[in-house]
Design brief:
Largest sheet: none
Radius of gyration: 18 Å
Number of strands: 0
Number of helices: 10
Strand content: under 5%
Length: 190
């Protein structure tokens, strides 16, 4: 790859990284292309050298945010219990820009383009499969339905904990939902 191609790829990735972070913080409509480009250290005129449309950036940014999450401590947990505790933690609640885009963008994705909804759906499917794989051996019933229940609780509890003004209530939401989810999967005696 030539130096100008490498620089273009680097610039492209910088734009996607800024968008992935800022979309989680502010929502898909909460920041303009001009502001993203400025934060990436570029002019708005250079945007179309990298993307055909804003929608293309949204799709790439959602995918990048999900890839970042998949590689993070947020999902790389050895047990379902640890996954639940990590996802429904104060650290995750407080890290909107680096946290789960599935949760941060749930309402935005519902109102977004088909392309954005497709990448969102693919990534949610991956997260559900991960939860299914973490279920303790011998878990009875429909594992997919249980994974959907857990993820729905994740999104709801995290959203509510971020929305309320009372820090004590926020903590209670996270801790109570975490404890209730964990209680659904009692430790198996050997």
């Amino acid at each position: 790859m030539g130096s100008s191609q490498a620089e273009k790829a680097e610039s492209h990735q910088r734009i996607v990284d800024v968008a992935a972070r800022r979309f989680r913080e502010l929502g898909l409509e909460g920041i303009s292309v001009a502001d993203i480009m400025k934060e990436a250290g570029m002019t708005v005129g250079g945007f179309y050298k990298h993307f055909a449309s804003r929608d293309d950036l949204v799709v790439e940014a959602i995918a990048a945010a999900c890839e970042e999450m998949e590689a993070s401590v947020l999902t790389a947990q050895p047990t379902l219990k640890k996954s639940i505790q990590t996802y429904l933690s104060e650290e995750h609640r407080d890290n909107v820009s680096g946290g789960c885009p599935i949760s941060a963008l749930v309402n935005d994705a519902a109102r977004s383009t088909d392309g954005a909804r497709e990448v969102y759906t693919e990534r949610l499917e991956g997260s559900l499969a991960l939860l299914e794989s973490q279920m303790p051996e011998g878990t009875e019933g429909n594992l997919r339905a249980k994974a959907m229940l857990i993820y729905s609780a994740y999104v709801g509890a995290l959203g509510l904990s971020r929305a309320v003004s009372d820090p004590k209530l926020s903590r209670q939401i996270l801790n109570s939902v975490s404890a209730e989810l964990i209680s659904l999967f009692p430790a198996r005696k050997s």
